[in-house]
Amino acid sequence: MTEILVQTPPVLQGPSEKERKYDRQLRLWAASGQAALESSNILLLNSGSGTVGVETLKNLVLPGIGSFTIADDAIVHDEDLGVNFFLDESSKGKSRAQCCTEFLVELNPEVNGSWWPKNPDDQRLEQLLEATQTPFTMILYALPIEPERLNIIQEYSRQHQTPLVAVHSAGFYSYFSVNLHGAFPIVDTHPDDTATADLRLLSPWPALLDFTKEMTRDIDNLDNHLHGHLPLVVILLHYLDLWKQGHDGAYPANYSEKVAFRNAVSDAMRRDIPEGGEENFEEAVAAVMKHVVPPQLPSSLKQVFDYQPSGSDDTKSGFWIIAEGVKQFYNRHGVLPVPGGLPDMKAQSEVYIKLQNLYKDKARQDAQEVLATVRGIAGGEDIDTAEVELFCTNARFIKLVNPADGRTVDLAQAVEQQLANDEIAALAGPEMPSTLIPIYLALTATSHQGVATAEQIVASIQDRVPAAAGNERVQKAAEEVARATGGELHNTSAVMGGMVAQEMIKIITKQYIPIENTCIFDGIESRCQVLRL
Amino acid sequence: MAATQNPAHVEPTNESARWRLLDQIRRNPGPFTDPSAADEESLANFEKMKILGAGGLGCEILKNLAMSHFRDIHVIDMDTIDISNLNRQFLFRKSDVGKYKAEVAARFVEQRVKGVKITAYNNRIQDFDETFYKQFQLVICGLDSIEARRWINAMLVSIAEDGSDDPDNIKPLVDGGTEGFKGQARVILPTITSCIECQLDMHAPRAAVPLCTIASIPRQPEHCVEWAHVIAWDEEKPFPQLDKDDPEHVTWLYKKALTRAQEFNIPGVTYSLTQGTIKNIIPAIASTNAIIAAACCNEAFKLATSAAPCLGFENNYMMYSGNDSIYTYTFKHEQKPDCPVCGKQSRPLEVDPSTTLQALLDSFAVRPEAQLKKPSVRAEGKTLYMQFPPSLEERTRPNLAKTLAELGLENRQEIVVTDPAFPLEFTFYLVFKS
Prior knowledge:
heterodimer, A: alpha/beta, two-stranded antiparallel sheet, disordered N terminus, B: alpha/beta, eight-stranded mixed beta sheet, five-stranded mixed beta sheet, about 15% strand, globular, ThiF/MoeB/HesA (chain A), APP-BP1 (chain A)
């Protein structure tokens, strides 16, 4: 008899006001993600026409970050009112940082906002950084920016391992880059529901086999009702066992064997019944190709197992200790811990729940074994059970973003590669979108000074990347950037503000998978490209 | 502590200084721009444009349109503000809960962006007729239901068809929608490019849980909630009418679902899951809405000014996904020649001549290419069944029990189906199964 899970009596009163306000986002990142957001402290170093960073903050204040600071020494002019929504007539002549902060905090009374400089004579950014009590969780800066300021903020970010985001928006073009300083592992990646189940059909454990045998002992004489309610897991395990008996103990391995196995399952369906077929057998047939697979180590997890955290990586993080524990588990058993989920399938309620508990119990046992290993590793004594369980549940989908894998990206090489791809794409036809790297090159030519002629932009690109010389798309991108004279279009900056906020939320909550590491947006063709640069 | 000297009086804003960055783009064609975009005539036309926005992306859309220097903006939204809107609909405050969204949003943006005129309608889009929609040059919407999208699409296609001699009757429709970290933005040039009806299969209705699972073999917490919602509520009728927004009603369903779940040892029933299941709640966040609404308004701006090529004739659809890195797919969705709304051909309808008219009507609700819930149907020269008016309904009701053969319908015969949810006719021709 399987152990029936004891349910803690749930609280019967409805959600709190805060839960109601945040309901639509809690369904995405849950209370854990919300707590991470609420304890975050964000710095925006603003410059240029000043809109994209403020649009980003809007999308962070609404879901409820803890606090933010805007550093910006600009004074509001008429021109700001045509591009920045968080300013109005009364802002003119005042500090842009202050006015934007005041309008932004109106969006969510739970968020604290402040601005710098309080005194126009304070021009040293170091003063702000030194005076900050709680370290910044993330820093966002807008381009174009003065090189001295950029150095200060980069140095601070390096020292404090603070993730740093750069964003540049001009006319219809924009890009942003994320610098995470070292490897950034994500456990809670939220894979699609359809991908998550691991039924372990080809490596079942004894309790699961016993359960199957018990249910299928007399399968041919079961009455139609019971036969039509055998869960697909039981059906497949039963016929896999029969298959093995006829194939020297081997499971169906290649495609044609799987097709043959699928036919065998389909043939076992009863058709001489009023419905003409059985739903549970149809489900079983449909599950063969996806679930009759040998246990394997996904390459993303193998990368985690093989990785040697060092240098700027967070080597003390519990993640690496748990990873070591799971790796040892894998080496001992040749399989990963059972994740524990069971998708819905046709079955009687009681049978389904028993089966579900079998998976859950096994998952708990496996996690306990990993926990015991982890506790034996130096530094693993205090690791939380819940953290180990989360790792085990998500093991197959864990993602290591930004590993220090020796791949240093040389811009010139990356550009050559991209432009070469374009030539191949041109032969393939119009379906293959061309690279957006010319936009990145043109924008980065104006990183410190927004106003430039197309000739100046092209010259700067050629200095950095000789291979780009004479490229027509580079020329056009340069003309398009020159056209904007360093100014933002509100819509482009609003698109970018959404994307940057989305990425910052992923990094702060350590949920979903952030970009690696640069995203270029083309507002003319309405598309993006993500590149590691 | 004043960062700056607060001027005693505010200088009137210099309008040309204010819009300098936007005008820089409009007056200086780029390498991809049609040079006529910077003609004085084109520039002047933009100033007269009247644009309509609707739906759940309304806050973002109004902000972006006003900041794109559209001057005459109209907005339709029948909804009132709920506390769960405040995490993303950024023009609303806690004190606004219960007020009309269109009204509050319009007043806010008018206040913030001087010079823009915003007209609010606290209505359903279906409350207005062709004359109303004809006054706009462009419609941009982020509606949350597929029914509303199909309705506005059919209206704009019908305007384009009726006035095909005048290009002003082509009112581009820019449509956006989001779900969690994903979304889409698309541009439709009615009758010219693929319309929402052509793309209906991109919104396949979600498969429902079979009633027997809910009634007798629940396995998931959702099955228990559906049981409380569909069966227990009907049996016990604890309140005269179910209001899914009334916490007392939801709590009743939650407790019922929980009791049932405990009976079957099913874990996972929570208040939040109960509410999400009965209301079919779709997760929504500020950042995705910002991306999609701004992508839509960017297209509207390009359409209205020709400052750069827009989605439309070639690529017309952008899919966005932010779950795993960022991925966009921008492509051309092809127009369907047999689209019931914008196509020129009638579509085949495969039927058994021994089917009753009633069975045929019922099938329109579930056919993915039709999805009509209240169909009326007529054939050449005869009315087969009309839902309205009541007198006609009564007179045509006896036909429901008759088979198609008995009604004298023939193979290849055309039938016309209408539905109050759509301002257009669906034409099919019958293909009898042998």
